[in-house]
Amino acid sequence: MDSPHFNLATHPVKDTIKLLTMLLEKITHENDQLYSKKKQYTCFHARSIPSITIYAYFTRILKYCPCANECLIAILVYFDRMTQSDPELGLKPLHVDSYNVHRLIITGLMISSKLYSDVFFTNTRYAKVGGLPVTELNSLELEFLRLNNYNLFVDIDVLQSYGDDLLDLWNQTQDLDSLLVREVARSEEANGGIEQSFNQLSMKDCNSNDSSTPNTPTAPAALADDHMDKQWRYSSRSNYGLNHHSANGSINIHNPLPSRSCVVKMIFQKLFILLFVSVIQCQLLLPSSAASNSPDSDPFVALTPIIETVTNLAELLETLLRSFDKYHRELAQDEAGLTIAPKVYMYKNMSREYQEAVFYAKMCAASNCKASYDKWDCGEYCESTVPDGVVIRSFATHPLGVHGYILRSETEKKLYVMLRTDSSIRNKIVSLQRQLVPHPRIPGANVQTGLLSSMINIRDIVYRTIRDQLKLHPEYHVRVAGHSYGAGIGSLLTVDLAQRLPQLNHTNLAGYLLGKPRVGDKAYAKYIAEKNITIKRYVEGADDLTHTPSVADGFAHEGDEYWLSSNATQQLVVCPGPYETKNCSSSLGYGEAIDHYTFWTQ
């Protein structure tokens, strides 16, 4: 009989913790008997066995600090390393028993999450979940690292081997049903189950002279607060307009922006409100003598500096708007020199090409639905695009703050690399760094420095994940998709994957990029055409961002352009590359901001 295969990517995490519970229950039970008389006390040992069971403890941790199978299996590898002595380093073997297993679990999962997940929680949150003071958890983290000789990396083959052995042990165990029934019953007894408070695990370091009573743990209800401190310090926005549609049925990639005239109107309204509030405040601050009815006293004299400031702001705004209009006209003049496409293709809304555009518009909308990417559960767009989607890797990098995730679909046999649009001030600052710099892997080609920095920030994360997934699923195709800032990064990332993974080519790798700014120069676009790298560039109407940076500054679009000329006609116009032409979106010149945020009718 073939040995069972533990699928690291798809095995349900809730089932994995059952396997771990079974193994750790056996280990702790045996070690409790073997070392009962010669117990070795460490800082991981509690003074008494915690009342919460191992299964309930795992369940609690995964509820408030979710992690992937890699993190769970990795702690077994760490525990094995800690049980081995190393006289040269002064490391004594550590025996996992009922007194230290809980603290080893919370410390191990916290460390493995930091290694294998780009989105993880702070030590403060793990301490609240685990029932430990954060200062003590910090000390446990250092000791855990020391006992592992600061070697935390685990090869994927080793993780796979441990997972297979764990599953095999599960299948060989005969009393699992009774074990799990007992575990679940114990973990959910009393009203509230894992929701209720439990006795403090930590009891201080056994070597400490402090014999004070441990503090009561923080109530678990606080852990559900949306304002919980997170490592990535992300904003509290939870939805990006997934359930909002424009009047013509377009998909909103973000909350739709108003037109330029509405923006001007709102700005002047705010300025008027600012002036009115300033008048009231100054009136309250004026001395009583100034507020009298004496003809010699003018109370509004004190308001003169504020009135002048607001007037200057209004004049500055008007100057900026005139400058923008002038810049737009200059961009249109620069693009007038573009060549004419030798052939243009038209597709109706029932065509495969049009439906593919709708699909990736929904995918990009889904990628912007919330700040966390650990689950594919954003509602309508997730269910209508990839209903069996499983997030196998998410990332929120530092310091550039590039957000995204990698999704796998067994039905479609595809891996989707989804890149979020600019979602922070850091992203916007980086995206404005538009100087052309040499591409590190394409001789003679130049690209935007800001987008290149962002791509380099995530390239190894994406490369390793896609490489490992293709080892497990060599028949899968890879799709890179993004909108706006994410689309710009997506172009560079698609090229990077094609260069570093020889098994990827135009048959199984493609970039689907919506509202993409110009990324590089003509040499970059030429390289993509020569290497036959598939880049599909989608443009809605007169999307203004797709016209930046300027052609006059040496920039050029790469790939084929798929242009939705009008939501009314629902006709898709395709202008083949390798360079952009004047037949598609450039024929309209610089447009409105609203076209950048709505894509494709349903």
Strand content: 5-15%
Low-confidence stretches: 174-265, 283-300
CATH topology of the largest domain: Rossmann fold
Structural class category: alpha/beta
N- to C-terminal distance: 50 Å
What is the CATH architecture annotation of the largest domain? 3-Layer(aba) Sandwich
**Assembly form of the protein:** single chain
Give the strand line-up of the largest sheet. Answer: 2-12-11-10-9-8-5-4-3
Largest sheet: 9 strands, mixed
Radius of gyration: 30 Å
- By CATH's scheme, which homologous superfamily of the largest domain applies? Alpha/Beta hydrolase fold, catalytic domain
Q: What is the CATH top level name of the largest domain?
A: Alpha Beta
H-E order = HHHHHHHHEHHEHHEEEHEEHEHEHEEEE
| Gross geometry | elongated
Question: How would you describe what is shown here?
Answer:
- This protein is an alpha/beta fold.
- It folds into two domains: 13-224, Orthogonal Bundle (Cyclin A, domain 1), CATH 1.10.472.10; 329-601, 3-Layer(aba) Sandwich (Rossmann fold), CATH 3.40.50.
- The chain is built from 16 helices and 13 strands.
- The chain has helices at residues 13-34, 54-64, 69-82, 101-116, 123-130, 134-147, 156-172, 176-188, 260-285, 304-335, 352-367, 380-385, 425-431, 449-472, 485-500, 522-530; strands at residues 250-252, 345-347, 390-396, 403-409, 414-419, 436-438, 446-448, 477-483, 509-514, 534-540, 560-564, 572-575, 598-601.
- The strands form three sheets. It has a nine-stranded mixed sheet with strand order 2-12-11-10-9-8-5-4-3, with helices on both faces. A two-stranded antiparallel sheet has the order 1-13. A two-stranded antiparallel ribbon has the order 6-7.
- Helix 16 links the parallel strand 9 (509-514) and strand 10.
- It is elongated, with a radius of gyration of 30 Å.
- 38% of the residues are buried.
- Residues 174-265 and 283-300 have low confidence and may be disordered.
